[in-house]
Specification:
alpha/beta; Spore Coat Polysaccharide Biosynthesis Protein SpsA, Chain A; two-stranded antiparallel ribbon; 11 helices; 33% helix
Length: 298
């Protein structure tokens, strides 16, 4: 197989309205809603860095400034923390600033709403290179941040499909919340995908393998599809539709997360579950949160 460029770029979609978190997201983007002491978006950036990615583009809603402000050094704040012996509170962000270059762009008003539009907004950043694509309200909880993403990159580099989808098996009663993957047996490509079908009821879904918010994508192959793709339901530009087109003419694959858990954080209930899951794995919070849950008879 022909070799492809080393993957160094990650693209994070953070341009949604987050209406399920109104009214709080009227003031700031949903990707900055905290999970324990860090915003959801920081977990994704750390995951990308853990996978060895060094150029990270965050696509924001047009006119939004809070995300860029969050990931930009603040000399006045750092001076205050140094004077009050509290510099440890910024340690996680300082790690980001030393290990990767963070870029920002807007999903402009001329682009349609939808989870494929951030790719079009980042054309100059991506070029024809392969890249990692991450949905901003999905979380990967794993022993080492970036481990699963690194596995996806390795699989992509080995087989060089048009797109490699991340995901996991979910209970059948939950598959209607997600995109379900239809597979075909292919001795040359494990877990080859023929269709990505959004939010079907369990009796119509082709499998209970749910697409997660992690992808490795060929820049050279995705743009010709997205540039000619029509809008789907709700007049949105869906990434699933692009995958379905590519699955008919090229190779699309999926890979299950095994040493970790994929969780969505895009609505209050699942955001709360993610917080509890993280707290139960935190050495300082695990015992008190367990005691609290047991006291509530939960």
């Amino acid at each position: 197989m022909k070799s492809s460029p080393k993957i160094t770029k990650a693209l994070i979609a953070a341009a949604g309205r987050g209406t399920r978190f109104l009214p709080v997201v009227k003031a700031y983007p949903k990707e900055l809603i905290p999970l324990l002491s860090k915003p959801n978006l920081q977990f994704l950036v750390e995951e990308a860095i853990g996978a060895g990615l060094t150029d990270i583009m965050i696509v924001q809603r047009q006119g939004e400034t809070a995300i860029e402000k969050y990931f930009t050094p603040d000399p006045d704040l750092e001076k205050y923390l140094a004077e009050t012996n509290k510099t440890q509170y910024l340690d996680s962000l300082k790690q980001i600033w030393t290990k990767a270059k963070i870029h920002f762009t807007f999903q402009t008003a001329d682009l349609p709403y939808g989870n494929a539009s951030p790719i079009l907004a980042s054309r100059d950043f991506i070029g024809s290179d392969p890249f990692v694509y991450m949905f901003g309200d999905d979380l990967t909880i794993e022993p080492a941040p970036g481990q699963y993403l690194q596995e996806l990159v390795a699989t992509f580099e080995k087989y060089q499909p048009a797109v490699l989808l991340g995901g996991q098996y979910v209970p059948w009663e939950e598959i209607n919340r997600y995109a379900s993957i239809k597979f075909i047996d292919d001795p040359n490509y494990p877990q080859r995908v023929t269709a990505v079908l959004e939010k079907l009821p369990a009796d119509q879904a082709p499998s209970n393998f749910a697409q997660g918010g992690r992808f490795v994508v060929s820049g050279a192959k995705i743009f010709p599809v997205l540039e000619t793709q029509g809008l789907s339901k709700d007049n949105e530009l869906w990434f699933a539709d692009a995958n379905n087109t590519l699955a008919q003419t090229d190779v699309v694959m999926a890979q299950e997360i095994k040493n970790g858990t994929w969780m969505t954080t895009g609505d209050p209930l699942r955001w709360l579950k993610a917080n509890i899951t993280l707290a139960l794995q935190d050495p300082d919070l695990s015992e008190p949160i367990r005691s609290f849950l047991q006291a509530q008879q939960l």
